Amino acid sequence: MRSNLSTICLLAIILSLVLFYGESVFAQQSTTGPVPPIGIERGIKPPTRLQTTIPNVPSYIWHHGCGPTALGMVVGYWDGNGYPNLVPGDASSQTAAVDAMIADDSGNPNCSLPDGDHFQDYSCPIDTFPNMKTDRSVTGGAHTSDCVADFMETSWSSVSNYYGWSWFSDVAPSFINYVNFTDPTYGPAATGHRYHQFTFANYMAEIDAGRPVVLLVDTDGDGDTDHFVTGIGYDNSTNEYGIYNTWDHSIHWFSWRYTGNFWGIYGVITFSLEPGAIPTLSEWGMLIMALLLLAAGTVGAIRKRTIVAAAKSR
């Protein structure tokens, strides 16, 4: 009897939470794979002068999870905009180094190999809902985290992630931990915001400041979230947000609204970086130039005093 009462109380608490938040208990998780769900809106529109986008945000295709891929675009953007230690080489296109930054598979995603990388340790054995298979996040022996997907715990069976799945709450800390792993002088910061805490005006402000974001959305409008995307633009005339969807290289446009609608938004993660304490090459150049000008001015002043003194002594 006491056991039945405890069960009823637990169910009541869960039901209360669902009714209060208006969403299922899995609403903060991504569940999509490398291809778009059938029948979803595409959001393809011709460019207009009313659309505002952040230039030079790289577009990457789904690589072992939409979460790490969407965040990978943010990392790749910052790598090309003053923080070059985030990705080896040029991150403007999806190179092997970019794939390794997103979710390392040693260039060979094959579960029969012994390599200790993200794919081998957490994606293998490949599982799909509802048949979860145990990986090294449970059994142990995994490599030290070294890519975005590792820090995001993507595909980790120990936290109920099937292959390619990630949790909303893990995106912000994964950015901070990955950046600190590559170069802690960059001072990373990231914050997750629920839809009702983050207005369209807040979103536009991030875009205007040149800071791409990651959104967790409900692509099919069934009330449950399923996909992470990279927010890079907005159209204030239509109240639409512009994204890279991890499935192609086009910019897609959707109405700013909550889950339960096609491409409704569960939450937004914002990111920022601060310059390190060590000056960059350009900063060193400016410092040296300032010192040279100061020295030249000092020498000029001394010469002027000498000339004036000599003239008075005559």
CATH architectural arrangement of the largest domain: Alpha-Beta Complex
The helix/strand class is alpha+beta
Radius of gyration (CA) equals: 25 Å
Q: Could you give the count of β-strands?
A: 7
What shape does the CA trace take? globular
Assembly state (oligomeric): single chain
Distance between the termini: 116 Å
Q: With helices defined by DSSP (H or I, 4 residues minimum), what is the helix count?
A: 9
Overview of this structure, please?
The protein is of the alpha+beta class and 314 residues long. Helix content is 35%, strand content 13%. Strands 1, 2, 3, 4, 5, 6 and 7 form a 7-stranded antiparallel β-sheet that branches. Helix 2 crosses helix 3. The longest helix is centred in the last third of the chain and has 33 residues. The C terminus is likely disordered.
Task: Jot down its keywords.
single chain; alpha+beta; Cathepsin B, Chain A
Quick structural summary:
With 314 residues, the protein is of the alpha+beta class.
